[in-house]
Amino acid sequence: MSSSVSLRIAAACFFSMLAPIGVRAQAPAPIAVIINRNNPETGLAVEDLRHLYLGVRTAFPNRAPVLLLALPRISKRFYSTALQMSPDEVKRYWIGLVFSGDSAVPPKEIADVAELKRLVARHTGAVGFIPAGDADSTIRVVDIEGKRPDDPGYALR
User: How do residues 67-103 score in pLDDT, each as one tens digit?
Assistant: First the structure.
């Protein structure tokens, strides 16, 4: 057996050990939309998220002004799923709104999940999104289209 054939066989064996048999790519964790625990909002539709994150709706029914918060590490998935837009398209949209004199305030990017949850817990009108597994009792996870993040068919996966 030539040394090049032996080397190829050894390499194939090595790389086959790196890829465990039967391991499937996991689906991304669901994204939880979170609000202040005192906010009376009980659930949102995806269209409501569009209205909030595009500045169409700037207050909740209790008249609390909306404070939009975004977690950059999952913004791409959230904006793609909820708004059918990329983060760049969302930024350009908001730049246009600001330059047109609209009073709506664009989402504030918060890099840390714990800080985002603290802001939501402090502001009645705050709304943000985090990986569902990071939700806790300091904030409230909102149903989307009547479903919780762990429900089959949840919209924000």
Answer: 999 999 999 999 999 999 999 999 999 999 999 999 8
* CATH code for the structural domain at 28-144: 3.40.190.10
Domain ranges of the chain: 28-144
The tokens describing 67, both together, are 């404070």
Q: How far apart are CA 107 and CA 125, in angstroms?
A: 13
Query: E strands of the chain, at which residues?
Result: 31-35, 43-44, 67-70, 108-109, 126-131, 140-141, 143-144
Q: Which strands, in side-by-side order, build the sheet including 126-131?
A: 108-109, 67-70, 126-131, 31-35, 140-141
Structure tokens at 78: 């959230």
Q: Cα separation of 138 and 67, whole Å?
A: 17
The answer to whether the pTM exceeds 0.70 is yes
pLDDT tens-digit series, residues 114-124: 999 999 999 99
> Which tokens hold the place of 108?
């504030």
Strand partners, 35: 127, 140
Q: What is the C-alpha separation between 31 and 130, in angstroms, rounded? A: 6
Q: CA 42, CA 146: separation in Å to the nearest integer?
A: 9
